[in-house]
């Protein structure tokens, strides 16, 4: 999955495993975008000035990493197949 729009069908599925996959894919997409922004920030390549302090973004990305780990653990236990 490359874009959030690619997850729409899964998100609207009656099957909870597909909704679970959509949740995971959406989170990973958002994580990758935020990580790319933070990498640009670190390299002085941002084309805008963030309004939040860096510490807020650091807390957010840590929470996202933790959430991804929780979903991956649940997927393994519940037999939900996740793509990379």
Q: How would you portray this structure in words?
A:
The mean pLDDT is 96. The chain has helices at 8-11, 16-42, 54-78. Helix 2 runs antiparallel to helix 3. The protein contains 3 helices and no strands. The chain is mainly α and 84 residues long.
Question: Can you tag this structure with a few keywords?
Answer:
84 residues; mainly alpha; 3 helices; elongated
In a few lines, what is going on in this structure?
By secondary structure, the chain is mainly alpha-helical.
Q: Topology of this protein?
A:
Elements: H1 8-11, H2 16-42, H3 54-78
Helix pairs in contact: 2-3
Query: What is the 3D form?
Result: elongated
Helical segment tally? Answer: 3
Q: Can you summarize the main beta sheet?
A: none
Residues in β-strands, percent: under 5%
Q: Could you tell me the number of beta strands?
A: 0
Rounded mean pLDDT score: 96
Q: Which spans have pLDDT < 50 for at least 5 consecutive residues? A: none
Helices and strands: which structural class? mainly alpha
Element-level helix/strand string: HHH
First-residue to last-residue Cα separation: 9 Å
Q: Gyration radius, to the nearest Å?
A: 15 Å
Helix-residue proportion: 55-70%
């Amino acid at each position: 999955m490359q874009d959030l729009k690619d997850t729409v069908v899964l998100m609207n599925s009656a099957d909870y495993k597909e909704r679970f996959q959509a949740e995971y894919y959406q989170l990973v997409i958002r994580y990758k975008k935020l990580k790319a922004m933070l990498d640009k920030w670190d390299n002085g390549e941002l084309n805008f000035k963030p309004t939040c302090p860096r510490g807020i973004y650091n807390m957010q990305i840590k929470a996202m990493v933790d959430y991804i780990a929780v979903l991956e653990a649940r997927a393994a236990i519940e037999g939900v197949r996740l793509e990379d």
